[in-house]
Amino acid sequence: EKVNICLFMQSILRKMEPAFESKGVKLEFICQKETFAHIDPIRFEQVFLNLLDNALKYSDTNTLTAIEITKKENIIDINVRDQGHGIPAEDLPYIFDRLYRVDKSRSRLTGGYGLGLSIVKEIIDAHGGTISVESQLNKGTCFKITLKGLYDENRFADR
Ligand code: ATP
Ligand code: MG
């Protein structure tokens, strides 16, 4: 299905906004207009809900979560960046594995099964995209998704 990624993300952010607001985590959204991709919107909503759920769960109050969508040629970049707890370097290779959680003691307090990111990865893979992560302990985490975009249909209209 052809989806306007900016509008799509906006509708997801509207759903998450109350939760961010009540924890005092600021949401920022930047998107390049006319960014289209062929995605399954139901599954992709799950991707962003899982990433935003993590950003919120692993951030403290008075921090910022920023979503930035840019496109270059036919590639769409989606960054979800938080200023949360960060992930230790030794754990980074495993966070997309099923049931993997970094801090087993913290895990009981924050809930969760360690499934969110494995589902995210599965959906991105099924769309032929990529996902990677950069993180610094006590500084924050950035998930980077790349997707093949669709050219603007009017691009060659004058030829
Ligand atoms: P679930 O998503 O199933 O509720 P979960 O959030 O623990 O549980 P994942 O979303 O798969 O599981 O994340 C795996 C682990 O990676 C988490 O337990 C957490 O330690 C770490 N993690 C994921 N996202 C972040 C983030 N934005 N900041 C810090 N740590 C993160
Ligand atoms: Mg999660």
Overview of this protein structure:
Residues 1-151 form the Histidine kinase domain. It comes from Metabacillus halosaccharovorans. Strand 4 and strand 5 form a beta hairpin. The protein has helices at 5-23, 41-57, 104-110, 116-126, and strands spanning 2-4, 25-31, 36-38, 63-72, 75-82, 130-136, 140-148. The longest helix has 19 residues, at 5-23. The radius of gyration is 16 Å and the shape is globular. It has 159 residues and is α+β, with helices and mostly antiparallel strands. Bound molecules: adenosine-5'-triphosphate and magnesium ion. The site of magnesium ion has 5 residues, from helix 2.
What descriptors fit this protein?
159 residues; 7 strands; globular; binds adenosine-5'-triphosphate; binds magnesium ion; histidine kinase
Could you outline the blueprint of secondary structure elements for this entry?
Elements: E1 2-4, H1 5-23, E2 25-31, E3 36-38, H2 41-57, E4 63-72, E5 75-82, H3 104-110, H4 116-126, E6 130-136, E7 140-148
Parallel strand pairs: 2-4
Antiparallel strand pairs: 1-3, 4-5, 5-7, 6-7
Helix pairs in contact: 1-2, 2-4
The structure holds adenosine-5'-triphosphate and magnesium ion.
Protein name: histidine kinase
Domain Histidine kinase: 1-151
Subcellular location: Cell membrane
Mean pLDDT figure:
92
Give the C-alpha Rg.
16 Å
**SSE arrangement, N to C:** EHEEHEEHHEE
Ligands, deduplicated: adenosine-5'-triphosphate, magnesium ion
Major sheet strand order: 2-4-5-7-6
How would you name the oligomeric state of the polypeptide chains in this document? single chain
Counting helices, strands and paired strands, the structural category is: alpha+beta
Low-confidence stretches: none
Helix content percent band: 25-40%
Beta-strand portion reads: 25-35%
User: How many strands in all?
Assistant: 7
Shape: globular
Largest sheet: 5 strands, mixed
The DSSP helix count reads: 4
The end-to-end span amounts to: 27 Å
